[in-house]
Amino acid sequence: MRFRMLKNLDKRREKCVEYRISYEIPEFDLSKIDSYHSPLDFVHIFGNGNPIVLEIGCGKGQFACEYAKRHPGKNIIGIECVPGVLVKACEKAMENGLKNLRFLEMRAEYLPIFIKENSVCEIYLNFSTPFPKYKQRKHRLTSPEFLKIYKKILTADGFIEQKTDSKILFEFSVESFSQNGFKLYEVSLDLHNSRLEDNIETEYEQRFIAEGLPIYHLKAMLI
After folding, report:
1. Are the CB atoms for 150 and 221 separated by under 8 Å?
2. At what angle do helices 167-179 and 144-153 cross, to 10 degrees?
3. Is 139 within 8 Å of 103 (Cβ atoms)?
4. CA dihedral defined by 154, 109, 160, 214, rounded to 10 degrees?
5. How far apart are CA 212 and CA 192, in angstroms?
6. CA torsion 79→187→198→148, rounded to 10°?
7. What's residue 30's pLDDT?
8. Full set of structural domains in the chain with CATH
9. In what order do the strands lie in the sheet with 216-222?
10. What band does 2 get if pLDDT is binned at 50, 70 and 90?
11. Across the strands, what pairs with 102?
12. Contact 172/134 with Cβ under 8 angstroms?
């Protein structure tokens, strides 16, 4: 889905600067990303050493904001690469006065530069772009390339939780996790007819439910 350019984008970004984590990406060959490390100091950013949670592809922030409300003892970071979408997420967090929520305007490929190894306890992949064509599979956020990143930044007992409406992406994810050092839990082909508790609905999820579409869900942990 294409997102229309927001009016007064720069001014709106400035107003919610306290919710945006600033950083600089060095110029380098992405294939040599393992050689570059500039980890963010989350203790300084949040003012505490609480556990770190990531939502990769946070959209307009509905999930991240609700998660922050329900889990005040954890710090959540929303990752989003579309500036206008991220501004809306920041504005929502600011309206709710959420102190344990921040955002990074970044592609997921760059996470190893800025996130310390073994420092993230939970990763959420909510309705990621499915890239349904086979030749696009390396761009899926559960491709082996991305799983390699998650394995670096997750704590030993951390987990990844995925929700999607795409059967193609879900089947791909099940196979990818299983073949790359993860064990699957809470696998569901119809989340809203399962017994999973404490589910936080996203904007897309609410739309798909209204249309009567099934929501696929899984949780993956390192073996």
Report:
1. no
2. 60
3. no
4. 180
5. 10
6. -30
7. 67
8. 50-222 (3.40.50.150)
9. 101-105, 75-80, 52-56, 120-126, 154-164, 216-222, 182-188
10. very low
11. 77
12. no
Cα(22)–Cα(41) distance, integer angstroms: 11
- Rounded Cα gap, residues 204 and 215, in angstroms: 10
In contact, 206 and 215? CB cutoff 8 Å: no
Both tokens of 40, joined, read 């963010």
Rounded to an integer, what distance in angstroms lies between the CA atom of residue 29 and that of residue 10? 29
pLDDT interval class at 1 (50, 70, 90):
very low
- Report the pLDDT averaged over residues 11-23: 92
Amino acid at 179: Q
Tell me if 129 sits within 8 A of 162, measured CB to CB.
no
Please give the Cα distance from 55 to 184 (Å, whole number). Answer: 19
Name the pTM for this structure: 0.94
Close Cβ partners of 8 (under 8 Å, ≥ 6 residues apart): none
> Mean pLDDT, to the nearest integer, of 62-73?
98
Report, as an integer, the average pLDDT of 53-76.
98
Q: Are 61 and 84 in contact (CB under 8 A)?
A: no
Determine the Cα angle at 181 with ends 178 and 185, to 5°. Answer: 55
* Measured torsion, CA atoms of residues 170, 172, 176, 178, in degrees rounded to the nearest 10: 60
The alpha carbon of residue 10 and the mean position of all alpha carbons in its chain are separated, in whole angstroms, by 24
Encoding tokens for residue 164? 């999607």
Nearest to 126 by CA among 53, 71, 183: 53
Question: What is the number of helices (H) and of strands (E) in the chain?
Answer: 8, 7
Task: Tell me the pLDDT band of 158, cut-offs 50, 70 and 90.
Answer: very high
